[in-house]
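The records we work with from here on pair a chain with its fold. Taken together, the tokens spell out the fold as the letters spell out the chain. The record below shows the convention in full.
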Amino acid sequence: LLVQQQQQQQQQHQQLRRELRQQLVQQPPRWPGTVAGSNGGTASTTPLDAGHYAPGELDVYYTAEMLDKLSGYLKRTHSSMEARYDLEKQRLSAAAQGTPPNSTDRKALQDALQRSEASRAESMAASLEMLQFYYAVKAIMGSKSAAPGCQFLVCGRHATCIEKGGQAHCRCEPCFEGDGFMCRPARCGPVTDFSAQPLLGQPPIGYPVVPQTTPKGVVELQLVSFSSDKLAVAVRDSHLGNRGFLIVGRAGNTEIVWGSWKEFSGGVKAFGIALAGFPNGRLAIAFRDADRSGTGYLMAGFLTDAKKLIVEFVKPQAFARDQAQHAALVPLASSRVACLYSEHAFDASAKAKPFGGMALVQVGEGGHLKTLGKYHFAHGELVTRITATPLSPSSFVVAYRVVPGVAAPPNEPSKELSALWVGMHGTELMVDPHPVTLEPERVNMWARSVALVAQNLIAYSYQSGTEKATKLVTLHVNPKTHRLTVADGPHLLSKGSTSFVHAVSLPSGAASPKTFTYFQKPGGTATAQVCRISPQGSIASCQEVPWADAELKSVSGVRLPDGRMALAFASMSGAPQCQILGPTESGAED
């Protein structure tokens, strides 16, 4: 009986849908109060009584009336069907309780109950399909009443459903325009999703038994983009014993959904955090356990549930001793990472000999780390302020400061602004032995950052302490010899001291590439200089782009795959926040 009722309901659904579609497709609408000419030409203005129309004619309200009838019918049949299924469930359950356990009669009644529930699910699916048709047609016709939820809407291609305030609407994705049911390609310019938002995170699994930890005393942080649409933020919190915490988020069209904060440092302090991500959802993290004379650690994390943004960590492994400088991590192909750091070794006379060290590490499945080799990129020189940027999946450029020796001659050229090329060949790293040196006549070169501008073109931003100025130089990488040469600069970006200097490449498309250099004067707000870079590396058309409205303690930025820019930062009070900049806000849009 239930199967017959379900079949009858589905037949009625199909008949109503066929009738409605036939009226929509085959019959042109007529204005109320008019009838068509006898020969199908221009309609006459013969008035008709209200609510009466010529046979075969369709008024403009007919479709809406049919949809309302369909909605009413669905509500009535759904209520009656649910009542019948509930009664049948009660009857079969009661009958099954009155039979001996494991008997043939109980098994038969349980099978009948399962078939009844399957039939109920099929009926619900049929009703939902008709409701989707009802709400979709109403929305296409311009109805102001919205669907109660996204399950009642079937949006068009290149569109997504948005729920807000108990109402659902279809909206075209970025780079498309339309009503959400028909989306046409439009000028591709992703917009800003939102202003700065606090990085609170979600309660962890097991909450409230498992307490929620939210960093509120952040003094340094790092942000990376990985695994297509994922973001990771790692922080050091001075209020929580300078331990390290990390959170993973998913960047969507309209928002970033964050997971839960989780400690990664294993109870030890985490100074000088460096972070790298890979397309397969793995992460590499480097830090040291003390501000001075600390042990350098390298560890891995990996997503165990990409949908719920759950990440697990493995135990940190020591890679260097007596560390006092930030390490740098560069993600490479095949889930490998280059770890760059300042180190020293002792000769036979127990004299320390400094050098710039590198380790090529394989980040395996489950966070397993395997060191493939260790190398030097600077010999007999004390290096600090190490930073690097990928040039390709198997090469990168590293920038660093060579600290002048105590016994160095007064007129010896300065190496405080150095940079060189490093490439990966198989399981080994190759270093160009001819680093480039900028402004060799000057000393006291402090903060710096390098960013990829275009193929074989690098932007080198830095702070000149003696001049109290922030500058920009472009470097060209010879594709055959791998040597770096100055393409243009130094170009003055800003006068005055700065708390930090960082650079991010901006998407260019068919236009000239740009570089986004952001910095902050002590006591001021963070700002940026966006400069257009020609294919030959010439710097031109720099403009100031203010993006922060308060002084920041730490900041890190990355470019997202769709061209937007993500910035994570900590306020002077230590509250972590995140912000998305579109082409207009970042200065990428002409």
Notes: Helices lie at 2-26, 62-97, 104-140, 583-586. The longest helix spans residues 104-140. The first strand starts at residue 159 and ends at 164.
